[in-house]
Amino acid sequence: MMASLLPVLALWRREMLRFVRQRARVTGALVQPIVFWLLLGGGLNASFQPAGAPAGTNYLEYFYPGILILTLLFTAIFSTISTVEDRREGFLQGVLVAPVPRWAIVLGQALGGASLAVFQGTLLLVVAPLLGIPLSVAAVVSSVLVMVIIALALTGLGLIIAWRMESTQGFHAIMNLFLMPMWMLSGALFPASGAPAWLRAVMAVNPMTYALAALRRGLEFEAPAPRFAAGTPGLAISLLVSIIFAALTFALAAQQSRRTSTGDLH
Known about the structure:
By secondary structure, the protein is mainly α. The chain has helices at 2-21, 24-44, 59-89, 91-97, 102-126, 137-162, 168-188, 197-204, 207-219, 235-259.
């Protein structure tokens, strides 16, 4: 087990060093969602009242948890794309021929991407009071724990796709095809209560819906009145679905890595 953990730590450390050396990734994964939040939230703030929310709740507050998810999503895309780059540069071939279990390779990649995602999500949490979103210490801690689960799930989903892709262009196309609709139909942009019946059914089976609900509940931990979580699934079911989602994506990513041989990477 210790021999398997060493490559996990090595791959995690490699992702951290890559992040430090590629600081433009911070701009793409953190600043872009904030700009999106301010522009879209500011434009809809005067005409949108979240269903089930108490009077005085504005759209910027409702949209804030969705922006946290979007930050995790963008980071998952930027971090797992390194798998496609490692394939092109030959690093992945060297890792695959090493006497290392494939699950350890995937775990190291997933922990690296998830660590970066949670770090950037935490930065957005810290500046929330400056943006008019009051949060308690308990809410920050519970939200960070939820973001860990969500980040692992999204990074695992990215690795499932990245292990099959041969170009960054194809990777971005597939990721946008799957992840952006999942995010939009999670309740990030609009509540399920105001959607048509067929759209509510799609949102009900979307695992991102429960991930966002868990984050909304975390943000409202010990809050006297709900602002984010009105009309969302309960915390227990949301956490359960999110954990299952994270475990499933990791298992599928590990299975995909076992199907890939060094010959497939040339």
